[in-house]
Amino acid sequence: MNYFRILLCTSGLFSFIFATWFQSIPRAITLPDGSVLDCFITGDQYGRRIHDENDFTIVMNPADGFFYYALAIDGDLVPSEILAGTNDPASYGLTPGEAISTEIYNENKMFYLNGEAGRPNRDAPTSGTINQINIFIRFDDDSVFSHPRSYYDIVFQAGEDESSLKDYFSEVSYNTLEVNTFHYPGSIFDINTSYQDDNPRSYYEPFSADNPNGYQGSDDRVQREHSLLANAINSISPNIPSDLVVDSNDDGYVDAVSFVVYGTPGDWSDLLWPHRWSLYTQEVEINGSIVGDYLFMLSESWYFNVGVLCHEFFHVLGAPDLYHYDGGGAPPAVGGWDLMESNTDPPQYSSAFIKWKYGDWVEMTEITVGGTYTLNPLQEQEDVLYKIASPNSETEYFVVEYRKKEGLYDVNTPGNRSGLLVYRINTEAGNGNASGPPDEIYLYRPGGTLFSNGNFDNAPYSLDYNHTVINDDTNPSCFLYNDSSGADGGLNLYNVTASGETIFFTVSFGIPTLEVNPNEILFILDAGNFGTQILEIANSSEDGVQLSYDIGISQALPFVNFQGGPDGGNYYWTSSETENGLDYEWIDISGIGTQLTLAHNDWFTVSDIELPFDFPFYGETYDYVKANANGWIGWDMANSTVWNNTEIPSIDAPRPAIFGFWDDLNPMNNNANSSAGGNIYFHTNSDRAVIWFNNIARWLPGGNTDYWGLYDFQIILYPDGSFRVNYREMGGVTNAATIGFQNGSGAHGTEIVYDSDFVDNELSWAAATVETEVPWMVISSGDGELNGVLNAGDSDYINVQVLTSGLDPGSYEAAININSVEVEPVSVPVYVTVTGESASPTLPHIDISGTQSGIVNLPDSVDSLFMAVASRYTHVTTPNGDLIPILIQDNFTEIQIIHARNVLESYLTNCPGSDWGSDKSAVSNTLGASNAILFLLNDEDEYENPNLLALMDAGVNGQDLLADEVFSEGSIEYIESSNRDATYEEVLHFIHRFGIQLADPGLQNGILSAMNNAIENQIYNPLDDLPEEDYEEEYFAIGLECYFGIWAHDPNGDGYSGDHEYAFITRETMAQGDPDLFGIIYGFFGETWKYTAMLDPEYNSQFTMSLDESLDYTYRSQYLQNLSVTGENNISILGNQYPNVLHGNNGNNIITGFAGNDTIYGYNGIDRAIFQGDWEEYFIQPIDDSTGFQIIDVMLHRDGIDNLFDIEEFEFNNQVYTIDNLLGALVEHSFPDQFKLHAPYPNPFNPVINIFYDIAVEEQLLIQVMDINGRVVHILYDGRVDKGSYHVQWEAKDMFGHGLSTGVYFIRLASESYQKTVKILYLK
Predict the structure, then answer these.
(1) Percentage of residues of the chain with pLDDT beyond 70
(2) In this model, does residue 417 exceed pLDDT 60?
């Protein structure tokens, strides 16, 4: 006969107390002789067992009342002759884990589910109000309850936002269900009164020699229990108000009745064990309704908590159990992610599907069209559950939900992850999982299969954990139950985003087809030239099937037929079964290898292995390696003793590590048992290091030979960072290991296999990384993105540019890698042949950090071709660390050079959130890769300079800017608008030609499209002598001139920019007349200049950064944000509405910031900051850890919040204070004589608001933020406060740091003698 075994808890279950199925609960049993037996209880109301710490089952012998170790005979448990706790049961040949047979378990279950015990439509309503009747009971020989009534009541109905039955169901039902509990008998002064039965406790326990008063047989037990409960009901029912509604759905039955019996569960008593049943042998009523179902609980038990109570009460509402009633065998279905399988205290939610089907609290929406969808967390009611059909089954489908670890209840889900959960629903399984498998609901989790539990902690999908895809080939796969045979589910879900207020995911139906054209790309270019080709990426699948893709570049891939990669370290892997040229080749080190010693069968070897070379691995370099007894090698101690293999990458697995065959192995060691076998050897030379696991035995739990294994394999490391694993002979269990590798943080890695079939005799696999930097190739797309989603029949086009500057003649190879979660990755090789006699000259890396200006003389080591053209040098650094060189001739002043460099940097500065300029790294990096040079030349005569022409002929590219065309801020030409500053145009040509045209074809196409439209509508009139190929460059430049007012405001007097080239002179007219170009320039450059303008040191007047129509130059200075003054002159600066950073000089500066939050530095001299209002209208406070002051204007749009440093004078509405005067005034007024809550600033706000208040006398103070419903969302201060003026900020977050939604809020200040509330508005 087959007996089911109760499996011991695994690590994934230790943190949960099962609601009905209890696991290894400690108990102390008093024996007839008065001694105490310490043991454990495992099971549920249908079958449970007592066992010792080693899981040997214990039963009572009714003949003497003592407990003995159990034997399983004919499916039942009978006592052996071995007294529990006195002998080692294993030495007598007994087996741990013995339990009643499945047949007897099911008989017990049917006893509880007796047809007479149920009633049709017995479930209580899931909305409205349920009034539960709870009755306290004690036996004749019991003392009174040991706690007051309030102690027991708190589990049923605690205060608001405290864990209780009432609060839980209010929250999970989204306030649609209210559960009130009425306790009987009534309480007097909080004493927990109870109904007292006429019989002692022993009357309700089984018969034995020690308990002759006990019940004998199930019929006797039923009669005693039902009589007890009926008598209790009849005793209290007259006291229940007749108008108390106990049958809210009018089905004739009381909605909910529970009994709390004094004491703890009976260790071997079916009756005195928590259960749910029906009073089917008695006819009792409450207010005219029949008492049917009831809950039976013990008051002093370990399970008398909110979690267990909520589980049992959800049964009252109709929800089924989700754990398997046979207690073992098949893997758990949903684990700790649902109240109805296992629960915590406070309890977690039930899944969205259970809420939908059994609670009717949420809606389920079916996804039938591929696309990207949004899930709200289960704390919300809308958009929390999606259904996705399986194309391979009519009876099984998928559902998804978003679980967010927050709040009182759902913070208690397994592990520490929030994210999207994917379930399989089986419509043929009935309700729940109790009789499963098949299970009605099954949760996918890594490592979970039809036969393996997997890792529930890591079930959530989220970009936060690089766990974003589920399909037929992932771990876990979306397998179907399919009558226990398993089958592909056909789900294709991917691109799960990071967890936030919501979570997004993409679903595709069917299998897309990825095609590329061409399959390889060939360039033949002369040295110094560049070329462009187009790569088409197409989704040629049927309608409705989407293809997601991500494109990158690398050096030539290490394998032709790679089976995985790249991972986060750019590692690829393949095996000898797939890769031609990767053959199984065992490296025999027998006789020459060194044996390693192990102190323990889960530890590293006693000695490290010294490597004769440096081995690179995930960005780190090692000259040693450690071998672990459990089939892997590594370098650090993180998780190094973990024997139970897991999925990877994972922070819980050993790291960093290469897992040849990570399993619970048992090699020979200093503490070896009789089943240990095999040793570890190593051998190294300059070409490789071999670590050989020679015939290593597998650990046999309990000596069970079903787990036998013997493994002969080796791990080989190579100096280039590649590695491989050879399997010579692998016997026994080979599908329970982890094979792969991961980095030191556990964030990146490759899992080749986890607990599945892969290894075979004479098999090899290898892994190698590849460099992703290809300095001579740049790829870009029309929209600037190198990833996206293609609908069926759609294509994207990728520009592939090759830049040969600096490359020697010869052949080069790289790869364009297209990765997709739906299909196998595709690699397109790129072959480049560079022709010519020699490479074009390039500038070396020149250090400019040694000078304050960043301008240096060209060193002698530079190629003579460059030395013949220029004498000085500076550069701009690109995001990837490359350089954009600037060569400088003699006529350029330092101010002019810095101005040109600043403009270049400003053009390449990101504009966050903009359409075209949010990420300019591709443009910047391409400029650096092109080796193009910005030439700062003396004048037009240099165009005939033979040395410059020779440099061009050698293949050097660049853009010129002439010294006599550069007029920086503060120069006479700038102030009088007498000469045009060509810096902006020529530097724009530079980045346009060598950056945008190569790296951002989408922007380039946008410029061309806007230009063609402008020409057609006579908005743009190219000059007659302008070559047509230069039209778009000049159009782009003239648009920039108009947008930033670069030239004189109206140079022609007719509203045209340039030489009558462009029909607009202001942003406003440009936005209306040429919106395409306006959008491009605004999207790429932003609203203001990003550089710090430097005034000429000779400037000695007022410089205005706000528009003054009487000053022509302010049409361009109005867009400056940052200004620095040099020299010794006394200068006045007028800021603008932007947040300015203003630097004074060594003179006496007068600085007015105006609106915007400004930072002002006076430096040397007697400097004055001017404010427009009276000083009483400002809050002035020192800046921590500095000599500066923060001055806060309480009026909107006037002076803002300014930080000032090295300012000696402060002018408020024409009243001047020195720093000492101001400090004196502050002291004089620092103790207000009345309480006041000032108007918060700014209001409306986003996301920070400033709150100012005065305290007249020391008092207790409370400052709260409340929402429109009067609920307190944040407490800004709560405590005593001294007399004075204060300032506090609020960042639109609640007390837990979570961002709040926009809308109306209230600031309430209350002291002992004053209170005031003001309204504020949060806008996004």
Answers:
(1) 94
(2) yes
